Amino acid sequence: MTLTPMHRRMALGGLLTATLLAVALVEDDAALSRPEARDRPRASRSSSAAGADRAAVAATTPWFHPPAAPPSLPVDQTVDPFRSKSWHVPLPPPPPSPPTAPTLPFRYLGMLSEDGVTRVFLAHQNRNIMVAVGDEISGVYSVEKIGEANVEFIYKPLGERQVLGFAR
Question: Can you give 6-54 as a three-state secondary structure string?
Answer without folding.
Answer: HHHHHHHHHHHHHHHHHHHHHHHHHHHHCHHHHHCCCCCCCCHHHHHHH
